[in-house]
Amino acid sequence: MLSIVVPTYCEADNIPLLAERLHGVLTSRGIQYELLISDDNSPDDTRDVVARLAVNFPIRLLQPESRDKDLSLSVIDGIKAATNDLVVVMDADLSHPPEVVALMLEQLREDDEVFVVGSRYVPGGSFDRDWSLFRFLNSHIATLITKPLVSCQDPMSGFFALCRSRIGDYERLNPIGYKIGLELMVRGNFSRVVEVPIRFQDREIGESKLNLGQQLKFLRHLRRLYTARFGTVGEFLSYGLVGASGFIVDLFFYYLFQLMGAPHQVARALSFWPAVSWNWLFNRITTFGERKRRSHGRQWLEFVLTSLFGFSINWGVYYLLTTHVAFFDEYRLAALVTGVGVASVFNFVMSSLYVYNEKRQ
Ligand code: GDD
Ligand code: MN
């Protein structure tokens, strides 16, 4: 017996199509199943639709009484409510071909310790080409940064199969947002990931709920996973990445202000502000995403104050080098980089001894 968990939000039009196709595929192969619709109290007629389908199909509706609307949490609710050990999770919008469910099941019957993923990026897999460049890049970059965590070509996939008993302790799971598959791969007790190629089809009905908020949640989710897997090194990595991105912001404004006519020392002093605000925001979302949230204004101010100290070193180095060393006056970028480097070491030491230390969970 198999349990199929489908998280839904406003998929009333898709659920009947999915239920019929799944039923056709599975009954023709003699596979008994239950279909669990894990719905976040959609404000459409999902409830009625499922009730009507339940006359002919083994379908059940789950709706949470109280918790934030969240795809990952819905999936976990569904897995917990499943009556079978074999579980497949898939989207409602027919992006995931029901035919593949049978193949996934075969993999699990061969070896019940594996985590099976419906994958777009293995030979034989594909996706609709009319993806926007943004979505394409997004998916690829996201995949790239999960490489140290899992060995999987398509860790973002929302189509996967597993034996529930391999998940282990549900308390250890701590996902946010969309990537529950990744969470399970990283935290579960699976021996390895097996990928079954799929043709990912864009939805025809309704719209994707993947928005900027979800992207930011994904960054926080990644940070949790990195910290879980690599401890403090994960935090350092996140801090470093945020710093590196802030450096680009810094450079951008350093040149922009000069283009606008500011003298280079002034430009150097001004570009600090957008850069530090950027770093503050992204550290808040990613590196320190799990810490108790303090008010924006106060936290920004604290961040600025600690950074200012580092920045006076940064600017001081730049100033001294460009005024006293001809080489650095000629290659001002080198002076800027040196200043940032010295200040980063200082900031890092300050952060790990003082800022981070106090508020570690
Ligand atoms: N319960 C619940 N709660 N379900 C949700 C929520 C939510 O907050 N948000 C979305 N869903 C359901 C949708 O109804 C759909 O069945 C499924 O989750 C996927 O949502 P889509 O909005 O269609 O996502 P997508 O197509 O952009 O993303 C899919 O592809 C990605 C890879 O490109 C998902 O499968 C992602 O998990 C996957 O990473
Ligand atoms: Mn979709």
Describe this structure in words.
The chain has two domains: 2-230, Spore Coat Polysaccharide Biosynthesis Protein SpsA, Chain A; 232-355, no CATH class. The strands form two sheets. A seven-stranded mixed sheet has the order 3-2-1-4-7-5-8. It is built from twelve helices and nine strands. α7 crosses α8 (232-259) and α9 (264-287) runs antiparallel to α10 (296-324). The model has no long low-confidence stretch (mean pLDDT 89). With 361 residues, it is α/β, with parallel strands linked by helices. Residues 7-9, 11, 38-40, 69-71, 74, 91-93, 95, 139, 156-158, 178, 203, 208-210 line the site of guanosine-5'-diphosphate-alpha-D-mannose. Guanosine-5'-diphosphate-alpha-D-mannose binds at residues 7-9, 11, 38-40, 69-71, 74, 91-93, 95, 139, 156-158, 178, 203, 208-210.
Shape: elongated
Tell me the span between the first and last alpha carbons: 42 Å
What ligand molecules are bound, each kind once? Answer: guanosine-5'-diphosphate-alpha-D-mannose, manganese (II) ion
Give the % helix: 55-70%
Q: What's the architecture of the largest domain in CATH terms? A: Alpha-Beta Complex
Average pLDDT taken over every residue? 89
Oligomeric state of shown chains: single chain
Q: pLDDT under 50 segments (min length 5)? A: none
Corresponding CATH superfamily of the largest domain: Spore Coat Polysaccharide Biosynthesis Protein SpsA, Chain A
- Assigned CATH class of the largest domain: Alpha Beta
